[in-house]
Amino acid sequence: MSAIDPYKLKISQLRILVAVADYRNFSEAALHLEISQSAVSHAIATLEAELGVILFHRGRNGANLTSVGEPLIEPAREILNLLQKIAIEANRAKGLEGGNVRLVSFRSAATHILPVLIAQFRRQFPLIKVSVNDVDEHSEIESILRSSKADIGLFDLPCSEEFETWEIYRDEYVVLLPHSLELNQTQLTWEKLAAYPLILSTKNSCSLQIRDYLQRSPEKINIAYEVSQDSTIVSMAEQGLGAGILPRLAAEPVPEQLKMYSLPVPLERIIKAAVLKDALHTPAVFAFLDVLKDYKAVTI
């Protein structure tokens, strides 16, 4: 008795085999596959002839697998699933030959985090275009993502439940003071911090977090200035008008005349990437998300 040549088996035969096993009926399998019942019958008969075994009992109750046919179904399913994976990967590869990834971020993350990510991404996918929209307010980022004008956003505040998020970076708040003060310590005490008029941001993300933090101070704190731009805080501290408090990324690059100090108790803002839940993303967007999720290992 000659051995069976597996390479003579056709994919169409395996699809029909699995369909008949699932529906236990030749006509219903034909409807599902959108082919004629005679085509189903012919395929099963041909497959049985090639294998030299009977796969189904045909009768009044439909088509039921024989004891020989039963163990063949799972391998057939696995082959069909593997073929599906091959098609998915091929389609994904085609999608990565072009396309566009649209990013929206608050300004300091757009300045210090996104360039590193984009450079890494472009080394892998040079044909994909990446665009960046940098904005000032958290609410703008949510709105832009919601309106499908961007695919991925970077946040520094909690966002609503309609978004899926990943933490990518922790950014320490620092104090900026002139070098001329010649302070020896790198971390200020509450008493030392309270000795200076403070310059704070009015941006929602920084404002809420730092004000809540300062309320826990055992010393009386003097908030002397409130400004909207990070660069203005840096310039005012440079002129000796007070101690500027802002996230480290927002302070960079620090002018030579200024020195960074740590707060009495460390404080960080958590920077997260976000996408709309259940959104239909292109292969290019998924590829950028893969790069982004590995970003924790990168040191700024």
Automatic annotation (TrEMBL):
<dbReference type="GO" id="GO:0003677">
    <property type="term" value="F:DNA binding"/>
</dbReference>
<dbReference type="GO" id="GO:0003700">
    <property type="term" value="F:DNA-binding transcription factor activity"/>
</dbReference>
<keyword id="KW-0238">DNA-binding</keyword>
<dbReference type="InterPro" id="IPR036388">
    <property type="entry name" value="WH-like_DNA-bd_sf"/>
</dbReference>
<comment type="similarity">
    <text>Belongs to the LysR transcriptional regulatory family.</text>
</comment>
<keyword id="KW-0804">Transcription</keyword>
<keyword id="KW-0805">Transcription regulation</keyword>
<dbReference type="GO" id="GO:0005829">
    <property type="term" value="C:cytosol"/>
</dbReference>
<dbReference type="InterPro" id="IPR036390">
    <property type="entry name" value="WH_DNA-bd_sf"/>
</dbReference>
<dbReference type="InterPro" id="IPR000847">
    <property type="entry name" value="LysR_HTH_N"/>
</dbReference>
<protein>
    <submittedName>
        <fullName>Putative HTH-type transcriptional regulator LrrA</fullName>
    </submittedName>
</protein>
<feature type="domain" description="HTH lysR-type">
    <location>
        <begin position="9"/>
        <end position="66"/>
    </location>
</feature>
<dbReference type="Pfam" id="PF03466">
    <property type="entry name" value="LysR_substrate"/>
</dbReference>
<dbReference type="InterPro" id="IPR005119">
    <property type="entry name" value="LysR_subst-bd"/>
</dbReference>
<dbReference type="InterPro" id="IPR050950">
    <property type="entry name" value="HTH-type_LysR_regulators"/>
</dbReference>
<dbReference type="Pfam" id="PF00126">
    <property type="entry name" value="HTH_1"/>
</dbReference>
